[in-house]
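Exercise (ungraded).
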Amino acid sequence: MKHRIRTTLALAGCVAVLAACSTEDPDAAPAGGGAEGEVRTGTGVTADTITVGMLTDLSGPFAAGAAVQVTETQAYYDQVNTEGGICGRDVEVDVQDHGYDPQKAVALYRSMASNVVALQQVLGGPTSAAVLPLAEADGLYLGGHGWAGVALQYENAQIPGTTYSIESANAIDYLVDELGLAPGSKVGVVYFVGDYGSDSLAGAQHAAQQRGLEIVPQEITPRDTDLTAQASALQQAGVSAVILGAAPAQLASLAGVLAAQGLNVPLFGNTPTFGPSLLATPAGPALEQNFYTVTSIAPFSLDQPGVQAARDLYEAAAPDGETGWEVPLAYAQAELLTTALRGACDAGDLTPEGVVAAMRKTTGLDTEGLYATPLDFTDAAQPPTRTVYVSRASGQAEGGLEVLGTFEGPSAQSYPVG
Amino acid sequence: MSYFLTQLANGLSYGLILGLIAVGFVIVFTSTGVLNFAHGSVLLTGAYLVAVLQGPVGFWAAVVVGIAGAALLGVLINAVLVRNLAEANPGTAAILMLGVDILLLTELTRRIGNRVLPIGAPWGADVVAIGGVTLPTSRAIAAGLAVVVFGLLWFLFARTGTGVAMRAAAADGDTASLMGIRLSRTGAAGWALAGALAAIAGVFLASFPAPGVGPALAISAFAAIPAWVLGGFDSVVGAIVGGLIIGVVTALAVGYESHLHFLGRGLGEVVPYAVMILVLLVRPSGLFGRAEAVRV
Amino acid sequence: MPVPLLTVDDLAVDYDGAVQALRGVSVRVDAGSVVAVLGSNGAGKTTLLRAISRSLGGVGGAVTAGRIHFDGHDLARRDAAGAVRAGLVQVPEGRRIFRDLTVAENLRAGASTVRDKRAREEAAERVFELFPILAERRHQRGGLLSGGQQQMLAMGRALMTSPTLLLLDEPSLGLAPQLVEQIGDIIGQIHAQGTSVLLIEQNAAMGLRVADRAYVLEVGTITAEGSSAELAATDEIRDRYLGVGTSSTAAATTDDAPDDTTVHLRRSTTARARQLRVEDLTVRFGGITALSTVSFTVEAGTIHALIGPNGAGKSTCINVLGGAYRATSGTVHYGDAEVTAMPSHRIADLGVARTFQNISLSLEATVRDNLLVGRHRVMRTGTAAHALRLPRARREERAEREAVRRIAALLRIEHVLDRAVHTLSYGDRKRVEMGRALAAEPTLLLLDEPVAGMTHGESAVMAEAIRAVQRELGLSVLLVEHDMPFVMGLAERITVLDFGKRIAEGSPRDVQRDPEVLRAYLGTAAA
């Protein structure tokens, strides 16, 4: 362990030296034709461009959703550039494909780190887990890495909403307060082991303890696509609701089997659990009847100006593209980074460290409905919000989700993150 | 009790589907000596064809095309890659198959992305219930069909010239060719048969209770590997029995996980391999594998 | 003027592009005749058959010159399956039936090229007529048949295509005399039904009896040809291949016998042979009782033979003594040690070495290396000393190489010491295996069919070698063998098994006269 820390520090040192070499004396260099004049710059920023990186999955299991996010992000910055750019500079997006392979992600990160001022996105749990410590050592902004609670220990990570644990705690609160779940009831949690599912389970367990419920955990892996045995076990245990920290394939199977067994109980999913294509599978009717999702990012169909802007941009860029929660998410993530970049510019420090510092000064940020509440990033150890949108599956709504409202329960408020 | 029977019925039907896949592993192994690690992606190819075509041409026609396509893919892999290896070490062929698997899987993943393609089967999400035991209709049909397919396989191997020739070639290729049996043909027949069986299994693995065709389907084919190994590498009957054992044990391990907590969570993942290892400790050549000839 | 059915002109065959197995071989089979090819092991007989049946490729051989015409076709353009379709079928050496297939399925596999169902049924009827026992056992697995029945099945399987020419590779190999005679009669019947036969035989008496014409193949070339009667009358054939007119021991005085049988083998240890006592030995496999309360004693330093018909339990007995099989009940003592429950390596440590009926050698390694492996048990210096090439290790290595050379000289395999085993013929491999067993300096040597597949002259060499090692090393020998002249000339004492039971024991003279033995085993062929 000690050895690894030393290596990381040494690497960080190297990168710092390289960065210093590759930039001209920041104080002596006039900032090009920029109106601000006195802005310090570092890696990824020249007189007329700002380069941000996207380390995403264009060839692995999340390729389709990742492509939606790339399209939306590009469209967002194209619009920013036509409106005059940031700090008098155009924003360029450097997109690289890690194929959901952590090794490749680390290698790509190393080649990218000296060319970008911030990472707009590192998609995927294991891939972002591999890159986060390196980016922290380099002091580089890293966004778009999902909602796992472990990211809260990193000063440089901008979590795009609340954590999976708080989503699940909200789900329990919603079950008790809005759907009238009786004390002593059992709630199943079907989850992937790892940063995502285990975080979701932890939130549900906290809330269940607060609200006097009992959790029945069922551990699965992404290769389980037939959840018959799990469904039977949940029915046998007598659960009154189920929370899923999994992927769409598992949701469809579980919803279908539970309904077929006559167990029509509410199913709550974390953000990545749902995909609109599920409504075309045999499980579609069961989902429409029983499925709820708790997300800090607004679903595609929400009628709010921020979400409307995201939709318009996407429909112009990809008229036949897949629709889903990825669209508002990508828009919101771009907005978060843009806010940090503008903040850094105003503070006269458009270096990577300057961007992180500006992000940490962001408070009371209104996203016009992309998130349910204003966001506060000043405390790295706390999520920027604890409020979620609660939505139901619906074949009528675009993106397959119809929003019921916003919600923040007592267990979600009391959940001790970190 | 009905809970136990439900889990058992699920395990048996799942086991029969695993048997279809494991038999494919066996047939390719005995007819060409190859450990076919590309079997999973052949299965996915078949299921993918069905999912893509069922919209335009209807489910049943799509199934026919999917089965034919997977069979043809097997024949092509054999013709282009396996036969050119001739007498290379079996390890080389196995590694080559891993490479083929990665290639096919990458392409299919690119096409499918993270969508879930519905298989469009007419039985949808129906369930049959017999006296407290519930079973998805698709699984009941799969079980029935698997039994029929195994019956046809028995007929093929025991009653037809092609089948007997395939068994003869598997037992002793050199002598079989002295009898006028063309090993290139028995090999192609083996790959075609394995591909067709994989496609059938794929359709059911993608049917309810699973949501549809996704890249994970190729990996679920590997769940049949413990069944193949514990049945004995070269035994069709062993593969079927192995499939049933693995299916039932997996279903019961998951179904009773809450009672088996002292063993830790995620038992369903581990149990097939644990059973395989136990069987191999007692019978190193598997349940039905060819031990050394006893008669002297 | 007879019509030639098969003509082989000036044929040459190489293995792996290096070893020349055949050169300038010309053979002709006329329609409606039976032709035999005789020759020692390694002469190239099997190679000739494989060249004709187009199956050399699988064993690394290639025709480099010459032509083969069959029924007007040039076979060069056909593969093995094509040759079968043209009407010639080979019955491979060692029978090679499909053990897991039933008798009926074996026949069905033989008929793979016959599309017409009626033709298949008729062929099966003919086969069952020829071999009624196969009809009786048609639903049994081939592996459960006795050796003789397996040979019948292999021939029947080949006859399913109704070939015009049948190629038979050593049909009498490993069969008791009575069965050899029966197989000979069957070849006559097949011929009578209009199928021509090209037959390869180490048993020249049998080959000459059934054939019209014969060729003698030696070291890859034809050295004699003529009608069977002519050849049987020549002295050379009589001496080398028939053993006619010579008692079995006197055979050692022919050209093939060692000139000097004293090869100065020395033991590097003081180990002495001990008494081997087998008491009430019973072995069961599932429902089959392979051995039933068998008892016999091999006195220290003697040669003892175990004989009996195929399936009598002889190999089972050897396998128990060597530790490969476990006894169901009964005991085996070697000296004071009870070996019944020992693993095979412990038994080897007691000084017991064995050869196998189905040879088990490292095929890619040279003969020398195979023999050196056998020395492993007696080498004193450790692996480390060898790796460091210490003087002591170098001295020992020289001594080892000399010991190996002597063994090779004794068994007459000195000239092949540096060849890879897979290039050797069956008979030479048998000798290498024997050499490897001897290299371990055993005090008890277990030999499973040491002269199967050898000509009379070759088995005489083997008999003399066994006698020499017994004399010079003072070891005991227990051997299983079908070749009666060999056994009678060599063994001091004989135990006869039938259906897993001991039916007689005594000196060769006693056993030959025992009516029970004559009935059960020797039959008329023993006369």
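Further reading is listed at the end of the chapter. For now, observe: The longest helix of chain A spans residues 2-22. Chain A has a mean pLDDT of 87.
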